């Protein structure tokens, strides 16, 4: 499914993305510090399938914002 990627205020249609999800947890002294057994959130990032580097800081990755976050 095509995706619109925005970088430097320029929109580009991308059709070959690879995505990964990172789950965050919060613990102190080995014990969870959230109401959800340590779960503290998630981040989804994507990159072109042809790209080796995928880091956000390198400028090659894309942070994914779900439609539920835009409304």
UniProtKB/TrEMBL annotation:
Gene3D superfamilies: ATP-grasp fold, B domain
Family annotation (InterPro entries): Glutathione_synthase
One GO molecular-function entry: glutathione synthase activity
Name the UniProt record assigns to this protein: Eukaryotic glutathione synthase, ATP binding domain
Biological source species: Photobacterium malacitanum
Lineage: Bacteria, Pseudomonadati, Pseudomonadota, Gammaproteobacteria, Vibrionales
């Amino acid at each position: 499914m095509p995706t619109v990627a925005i970088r430097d205020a320029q929109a580009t249609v991308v059709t070959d993305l690879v995505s990964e999800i990172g789950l965050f947890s919060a613990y102190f002294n080995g014990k969870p510090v959230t109401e959800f057994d340590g779960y503290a959130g998630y981040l989804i990032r994507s990159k072109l399938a042809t790209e080796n580097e995928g880091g956000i800081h390198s400028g090659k990755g894309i942070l994914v914002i779900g439609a539920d976050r835009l409304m």
